[in-house]
Design brief:
Chain B: Belongs to the MYST (SAS/MOZ) family. Chain B: One of its GO terms (biological process) is DNA repair. Chain B: Component of the NuA4 histone acetyltransferase complex. Chain B: It is found in: Chromosome; Nucleus. Chain B: Keywords: Acetylation, Activator, Chromatin regulator, Chromosome, DNA damage, DNA repair, Nucleus, Transcription, Transcription regulation, Transferase. The complex is a heterodimer. By secondary structure, chain A is mainly α. Among the domains of chain A are: about 100 residues, no CATH class; about 120 residues, no CATH class; about 45 residues, no CATH class; about 160 residues, no CATH class. Helices cover about 50% and strands about 5% of the residues of chain A. Chain A is built from 23 helices and five strands. A three-stranded antiparallel sheet of chain A has the order 3-4-5. The longest helix of chain A has about 60 residues. The two termini of chain A are about 100 Å apart. In chain B, the strands form seven sheets. Chain B has a five-stranded antiparallel sheet with strand order 5-4-3-2-6, with no helix packed on it. The two termini of chain B are about 45 Å apart. Chain B is an alpha+beta fold. In chain B, helix 9 crosses helix 10, helix 10 crosses helix 13 and helix 11 crosses helix 12. Chain B has three domains: about 220 residues, no CATH class; about 55 residues, Wheat Germ Agglutinin (Isolectin 2), domain 1 (2-Layer Sandwich); about 210 residues, 3-Layer(aba) Sandwich (Aminopeptidase), CATH 3.40.630.30. Chain B has 14 helices and 23 strands. Classes of the chains: A mainly alpha, B alpha+beta. Strand 1 of chain A pairs antiparallel with strand 21 of chain B.
């Protein structure tokens, strides 16, 4: 290796010189990265610099053959697109490339690279003889094991991909497995015990496992300091509620067996175990010690983090203890329940016996104490009668009360939360109002300016003024009092206008008209607010008409409120007028029709014919340019 | 290269090798003799000797054969009519040399060389008191299972290999010597050399490397150890182990070790194994199924969550992987297990492990097809699957080195086939190495080297070209035909239900 790499370095330097002097004639692949230092192939870093080695050797060849290399191969970059050709498309050239083969790392351990079979295989593939590329391995043969008995065909594949998180320990049941030795013992033991107290294999294994685990827990360093085998007294000590009854029952019988087996192995675990690190010096050199823990990176300690982790640990411990407690309680409850059930059963049996006795002895009474349900019913009323005073109901109550000092009721908490939320909302509203103080929202204005603003309202006459030269006499008692003497429509107008103001809260909503003279002397009547008399439509209904383009009046129906003050007034006025001005009755009638009609037509343009409005039209200065609705 | 100069005459080392005729009684550990192997005589080194009723048997390593072919041979197979090479006993000198030559060996390069020459560094002891014939290098008997520890045979320390190929003494001569110095005080007497043998420094380095890189491969000191298990019963097969694996040391005493096919638990007692089978409910690797086609399934098993299972798996695979080390625990790895299915369950066929977070960008740490399923194309599927995962991750990946011999052949074949398949696609006229890498999830380096190895990258008339050689084309066509007949066994990416798992720094560091 060494000499080769020395050579390589020489080449490198000479080549670098060449490179420096020679103009690059070849095309597309620029060699801008030529100047960068080549990684030293001699160093511990064995990853070969990718394409250089090849470039190099080829270059040397060309250099030597044709003098200083005009044809020195271009450097091959990873991004460079390389044409793909078949072998017959190019001239067969060098066998020298074969030598570059040696430059490619196999990735196999150096000392093994030269192994006989591997070399044979590599050379075989290089020469295209795949079948020779065979590395012999020790044989495997079919086992004579009773596979079907040991591996029952129980697997059924689910339709979906399997998801599974149980561990080996979860799936293997009791970790202790019986050996032939145990079989012998168990057989003898069961023969001695006779039929009743037989120990099953599972019980036996559970017991042995209990011994093993206890020994491991109490003598964790047994493998190192070889203490005597744990005494049975210690075993009994370790029996807590979690140990099954069967185990407790068989423990003393099996203990001696376990002890003798333990003694044979030098108080080592009976199950063969892997060797883990023991913290001794010999660990490192012992090939059997495996699966050491990896050292974890130290993170920087701060007081805060310390406190944090202490708190975390404390909480964790508390939670674990709590849950353990809970489980213990549940167990207690279930045990009690079990007791109760068996008690009930006993009671039932005894009662049925009593019943039989009674029958036998021919005792006749109401049998209430005999029948199961009835005595129970009887005793139950007893219990309830006691209950109000007796512990059963009060106990939880008391418990609740005792706890009440600390315990908050759900409703309280909820109410408090609610009020808090409300307070929050209010605060937020106040805040927003404060923020919005003095804020003028110019964007609220409609994009196209409101129609009303575009024309001079003064040019419009209110409809009433024009129509009511005289007030109605009949029903309008006081309101119309003043009007009879008003003959001049102009004089009356102001008064009525005032009234109108009374009638309509907003004067602008009063129907009004103006007259304009259009081109060619046409007279036009513009009107406003006629629709205002319309009743506010149900928004739903209004929506229905929103996009209704229907124009013909036959089909149109309008929702009008027949009892709206405006309309009633209007009707009254017209009727009064009809009565009073009989002469112009027909005319006025027609006009009133025309008056009512506008409410139906969004826009009426009429050529002037006998228009009653002229005074108003004159007074208003028709600006004419803008129409009222446009 | 000068690497393989270990056996003196092979490389023409000037070092004199002590030769002579031996008898069965004088053969001892470290002796190299000619041994019958498959009808021919091969030179083999005696690594261990044990006494049987019918005479001694010898554990031999055939020179230049892979260790998986090491075996116990009866004395009749050793050809004593030829001279044997004696190991060279020069213990005292060695020690002196050790103390003087300490310093230079700190050079990492030399240590690497030292690792290369590890073959000489240690020779396993014979089995305890049973070996009567062991010479100086023997050790008093010890409890079972301990006998496999390496002992530096003195001759080897100064032996032939301290000289490089071209015959000049290496600068690093010292490293082999140095390896013993650290344990000088531990040696009670000359005959009882304690285990750590040579490579104290190398080993520390090794451990340091393991610690920092999280790798689970290669531990030189464990390399020349006598196999500890004789035979393995697993599923429907009896399997011969290839290498040492740290199963409980008592297992080396039994003839057959039982492995549960599903939970991979191990038993040295048939009755216990049967009892276990009666209780065990596992029918597939204990993880999530992430791939399923009509033949195989893949399960992803987290080394931390399924520690026992993954440890069992590692113990098992160590039997067949020389450079795997079980020095550290399985936590930082994910195990992708390939199974075939039948009515009894999902049978493990092979697996590969993958670092949860590989600093070096490896997409695979260890890969193994169980021997009973080898040579059926499963290895190719495993490799292909590892690249499928890399594609899903959007990364380019490469297997961790060193590769084993079988690994190298398997990978080269896969690389070649994958690249050729791409290059043969119709209307491909040019491709860059980068494009190839991106399409295959192979690293550019692997792409380049594969092209070079198969002589497909050539310089032609002033331009680089990728040559589809007749060889690769015919191989490709052969494969296509085979697939037509047998049906193509391929990984179908659409059947992969997998997202790259994410592990936070703390979960990796603290196992949360």
């Amino acid at each position: 290796m060494q000499p080769a790499s020395v050579n390589a370095r020489k080449e490198q330097s000479t080549e670098a010189g060449v490179e420096w002097r020679l103009p690059r004639t070849e095309g597309p692949f620029s060699e801008s990265d030529n100047a960068q230092p080549r990684p030293n192939r001699n160093g511990p870093d064995l990853s070969p610099p990718r394409p250089w080695s090849l470039a190099f050797r080829a270059s040397r060849r060309y250099d030597s053959v044709r003098g200083l290399g005009r044809t020195r191969p271009k450097k091959l970059t990873a991004k460079a697109s390389i044409p793909i050709v078949h072998e017959h498309q190019i001239d067969v050239i060098d066998d020298e490339l074969q030598s570059t083969l040696q430059q490619i790392e196999t990735g196999v351990e150096k000392a093994e690279e030269s192994e006989f079979h591997l070399q044979v295989a590599i050379n075989a593939t290089a020469q295209g003889k795949v079948n020779a590329a065979h590395i012999p391995t020790p044989e495997t043969i079919l086992s004579n094991l009773q596979y079907d008995e040991l591996y029952p065909p129980l697997f059924s594949q689910p339709a979906t991909y399997i998801r599974f998180s149980s561990t080996v320990e979860d799936c293997c049941g009791c970790p202790y497995n019986m050996t032939e030795e145990d079989d012998v013992f168990l057989k003898i033991f069961n023969q001695k015990c006779g039929g009743s107290g037989r120990c099953t294999e599972d019980d036996f294994e559970a017991t042995m496992n209990f011994f093993e685990e206890t020994a491991h827990a109490k003598q964790p360093y047994a493998a190192v300091d070889s203490p005597p085998v744990l005494a049975f007294a210690d075993m009994e000590e370790a029996m807590d509620a979690t140990v099954e009854d069967n185990v407790k029952h068989f423990a003393k019988h099996i203990y001696e067996h376990w002890k003798s087996r333990r003694a044979v192995t030098g108080n080592r675990s009976l199950e063969p175990n892997l060797k883990f690190e023991t913290g001794q010096d010999t660990d490192d050199s012992d090939p059997y010690v495996c699966f050491r823990r990896r050292e974890v990176r130290q993170i920087r300690k701060t007081r805060g983090r310390d406190a944090q982790s202490t708190e975390k640990l404390r909480r964790l411990r508390k939670e674990l203890e709590d849950s353990r407690q809970l489980v213990a309680f549940v167990r207690q409850r279930e045990v009690a329940r079990n007791e109760m059930v068996s008690m009930d059963q006993r009671l039932f049996r005894q009662r049925s016996e009593v019943k039989d006795m009674k029958r036998k002895l021919n005792i006749k009474d109401d049998d209430e104490d005999l029948i199961n349900q009835k005595p129970k019913k009887k005793s139950q009323p007893d219990v309830p009668s006691r209950q109000p005073t007796a512990p059963q109901i009060r106990m939880p109550l008391k418990a609740g009360l005792q706890g009440a000092e600390d315990l908050q009721l759900l409703e309280d908490v909820q109410a408090e939360k609610e009020s808090e939320i409300m307070r929050d909302i209010k605060m937020n509203i106040a805040k927003h109002i404060k923020w919005n103080e003095g804020y003028v929202d110019h964007t609220r204005a409609p994009l196209s300016p409101a129609v009303e603003k575009t024309f001079d309202e003064a040019t419009f006459r209110h409809a009433i003024t024009a129509q009511l030269p005289t007030p109605p006499s009949s029903n309008a008692s006081d309101a119309m009092d003043t009007s009879p003497d008003v003959t001049s429509p102009l004089a009356a107008r102001d008064k009525l206008a005032r009234r109108a103001v009374d009638l309509h809260e907003e004067p602008s909503r009063m129907p009004s008209f103006r007259r304009r003279v259009g081109r060619g002397g046409r007279l036009m009547i513009d009107r406003r607010n006629v629709a205002a008399s319309r009743v506010e439509m149900d928004p739903l209904k209004a929506d229905r008409f929103k996009f209704d383009q229907e124009d013909s009046d036959e089909d149109m129906s309008y929702d009008t409120d027949g009892f709206s003050i405006q309309l009633m007034q209007h009707r009254a006025i017209t009727m009064a007028k009809a009565r009073e001005q009989a002469a112009v009755a027909a005319h006025a009638q027609a006009q009133a029709q025309a008056q009512a009609a506008p409410s139906r037509f969004p826009r009426v343009i009429q050529d002037s014919f006998g228009n009653p409005i002229p005074p108003a039209g004159n007074a208003g200065n028709p600006t004419a340019a803008t129409s009222s609705e446009g | 290269m000068g690497v393989r100069d270990s056996h003196g005459e092979a490389t023409g080392t000037p070092d004199p090798v002590e030769k002579g005729f031996a008898t069965l009684n004088t053969i001892r550990i470290g002796v190299k003799a000619m041994v019958q192997k498959d009808g021919e005589l091969r030179k083999a080194e005696i690594l261990s000797i044990r006494q049987r009723k019918d005479g001694p048997s010898f554990y031999v390593h055939y020179v230049d054969f892979n260790k998986r072919l090491d075996e116990w041979v009866a004395s009749s197979r050793i050809d004593l009519t030829q001279e044997v090479e004696w190991p060279q006993p020069e213990k005292t000198d060695k020690k002196k040399a050790a103390s003087t030559n300490k310093a230079p060996s700190k050079n990492p390069k030399q240590q690497r060389v030292g690792a290369d020459s590890r073959e000489q560094s240690g020779t396993p002891d014979a089995l305890g008191g049973k070996n009567m014939n062991v010479g100086k290098a023997s050790r008093p008997s010890k409890a079972g299972g301990k006998e496999n520890q390496d002992i530096p045979t003195p001759g080897d320390i100064f032996g032939s290999e301290a000289v490089s190929a071209d015959g000049t003494p290496r600068a690093g001569d010292s490293e082999d010597v140095e390896m013993t110095d650290a344990q000088d005080e531990k040696i009670p007497n000359e005959d009882e050399v304690k285990t750590v043998s040579g490579e104290v420094i190398t080993r520390e380095e090794e451990i340091e490397r393991l610690r920092t890189s999280g790798s689970m491969t290669q531990n030189p000191t464990e390399i020349h150890r006598v196999r500890n298990l004789t035979r393995l019963q697993m599923g429907k097969f009896d399997v011969e182990p290839w290498y040492f694996s740290p199963y409980p040391d008592s297992f080396s005493d039994v003839d057959l070790v039982y492995i549960d096919e599903f939970c991979l638990s191990y038993f040295d007692n048939k009755r216990a194994f049967e009892r276990h089978r009666a209780k065990c409910t596992l029918v597939h690797p204990p993880g999530n199924e992430i791939y399923r086609d009509e033949h195989i399934s893949f399960f992803e098993v987290d080394g931390r969550r399924q520690r026992t299972w993954c440890r069992n798996l590692c113990l098992l695979s160590k039997l067949f992987l020389d450079h795997k080390t079980l020095y550290y625990d399985v936590d930082p790895f994910l195990f992708y297990c390939m199974c075939t299915r039948d009515e009894t369950g999902c049978h493990l066929v092979g697996y590969f492990s993958k670092e949860k977070d590989s600093a070096e960008g490896y997409n695979l740490a260890c890969i193994l097809t169980l021997p009973q399923y080898q040579r059926r194309g499963f290895g190719r599927l495993l490799i292909s699957f590892s690249y499928e995962l890399s594609k899903r991750e959007g990364k380019l990946g490469s297997p961790e080195k060193p590769l084993s011999d079988l690994g190298l052949l398997g990978y080269r074949q896969y690389w070649r086939e994958t690249l050729v398949e791409l290059l043969m696609e119709p209307n491909r006229e040019a491709m860059s190495e980068n494009e190839l890498a991106v399409l295959t999830a192979m690293t550019e380096k692997d792409v380049h080297e594969t092209l070079v190895v198969f002589n497909m990258l050539r310089y032609h008339k002033g331009n680089w070209v990728i040559v589809l050689t007749d060889y690769v084309v015919s191989e490709h066509n052969k494969r296509l035909q085979k697939e037509k007949v047998k049906g193509a066994r391929k990984i179908d990416p659409t059947l992969l239900q997998w997202k790259p798992p994410v592990f936070t720094a703390s979960s990796r560091t603290w196992n949360w």
